[in-house]
Amino acid sequence: MEGDKRFRELIDRSFVEEVSEGERQLIHDHIRDCDGCKRYLELTARTIRGLREFTFTSERSRCQLWDRHLSTRWPSS
Ligand SMILES: [Zn+2]
Fold it and tell me: Which helix (H) or strand (E) holds 65?
């Protein structure tokens, strides 16, 4: 999909620094329709967070978890 690269950069950024509410909403809206980026976000989250708590993530709770991730400031190291 066109623009995916941009979204993925935004997703990357959202994990290492604060993004604006508008940008967050953009990602949120986009991944609702884009499986590729949703997958990318999940993989990124898993990589950064380091696994297990995502093992039992259900389809429905993904967005909630993601919101929580984004509201937490990740250490950049
Ligand atoms: Zn996409």
Answer: helix 62-71
Q: Counting beta carbons within 10 angstroms of the beta carbon of residue 76, is it exposed (0 to 12), middle (13 to 18) or buried (19 or more)?
A: exposed
74/13 Cα distance (integer angstroms): 10
| Cα-to-centroid distance, 62 and ligand 1 (Å) | 16
How many A from CA of 42 to the centre of ligand 1? 13
pLDDT along the chain (77 residues), means of 10: 86 88 94 95 84 50 64 55
Query: Angle at which helices 4-16 and 35-49 pack, to 10 degrees?
Result: 20
Whether 66 and 43 have beta carbons less than 8 Å apart is answered as: no
Domain positions in the chain are 2-73
pLDDT at 77: 45
